[in-house]
């Protein structure tokens, strides 16, 4: 705060600023601001001392109540109440008759009193005051402030005179005057002050360019299980003091703080960011919030509510069956018209399956998909699900859409594929995702199957091993007996279809020679314990 400088005029001069200017010799100059020169006054040029708008000189001529009591108040300046008290005495507003340069009333503490205290309803910046001697004794007084970072000021004056005391305090809530002579009386006038500027932080939060009020909402949208969505929020400080961020706390399953506040404290007119991640593990998740703890006076707990939805992860699996696989690396679809519309007619206890009116285009057969968190059978997750194997080796849902499994929670899984007359295979690694889609291709290398549990087929591809008519996990004499019993018989998917190892709708020597005989003694490499 730049202090305003007063110009004192002798009491016999009554002209206003709009009248003819005084001559230089008319003025008893105490101190001029540097903007004002003798020439500017003589030429009647206009001038304005710096920073005068916010500073007021109080002379206790109005807004006084309680005069003559132990406590007097002044409301002369709007927005400010000043309370005067005297230790052991009374306070009055009296006319000092121009003593020491006073005008109209002064605040007078009659005694004997040991001190006079002036308190303010809000912090103020005090430039100076006029202290008077109503006692007729020279004095050295001490002015001691409370509030702000200020120092006490000592001031001396002669008997029966006054003295302008330059204080230059900021953020003061009260001050006390001590050191009066034995009569214990104090008098002040021309208290020059301004209400202190109130510096405070003010929080505002944005996502991109959109403001979000406390209690407002942000929609994360739909996120697949196994995937995540990160959203960056910007915390702005629109106030004029540092904003302290004390905490950023998420709530709601699936929500977390990916990166904390980038700057703390946040300076006035500054900003900082933090990132929230929505990574659901179940379709029931989506509701949450984040609470930003801070030192804004009226928004110390700034809450943003979240909405979102979670959808099942998809499994993008490619696998071939040795029997129907051709050199073109596609599989026969010969029996697709005979494949049951209800997967429960093929595999028992599969997850949430109902019949469909028709199978997807290029359907080869149903397969059963199992998930494990480890290689052991005991790590199986939930119930298996049936999917349609298409001629290009992809597995789709019964309606032809992407294949999903509701028990997936974003973890890594070993993927197991079962077929009714081929040996089961399992991925050689736990398949993970950050996108919501678990992708795995069994066909490009034998090592992609756990313990090399696949066989070469097609052109430079690998496939599930055919010939296991009874689904025992071993190609053996029992499978040969099944083939012999049904060799040459009319094909029936639900009757003797398991003996048709190449899925061409016929049971003949090709099934025995190219699959059952060739693969005799081979066993599935998927652990059963």
Helicity level, as a percent range?
Answer: under 10%
**Percentage of β-strand residues:** 35-45%
Structural class: mainly beta
Count of separate structural domains:
4
Largest sheet: 11 strands, antiparallel
Structure notes:
The protein folds into four domains: 1-43, no CATH class; 56-195, Galactose-binding domain-like (Jelly Rolls); 203-311, Immunoglobulins (Immunoglobulin-like), CATH 2.60.40.10; 314-517, no CATH class. The protein has 529 residues and is mostly beta strands. The chain has three helices and 29 strands. Strands 1, 2, 3, 4, 5, 6, 7, 8, 9, 10 and 11 form an eleven-stranded antiparallel beta sheet that branches. It has a five-stranded antiparallel beta sheet with strand order 13-12-15-18-17, with no helix packed on it. 5% of the residues lie in helices and 36% in strands.
Brief rundown of the structure:
5% of the residues lie in helices and 36% in strands. The protein contains 3 helices and 29 strands. The strands form 6 sheets. Strands 1, 2, 3, 4, 5, 6, 7, 8, 9, 10 and 11 form an 11-stranded antiparallel sheet that branches. Strands 13-12-15-18-17 form a 5-stranded antiparallel sheet, with no helix packed on it. It has a 5-stranded antiparallel sheet with strand order 24-23-22-25-26, with no helix packed on it.
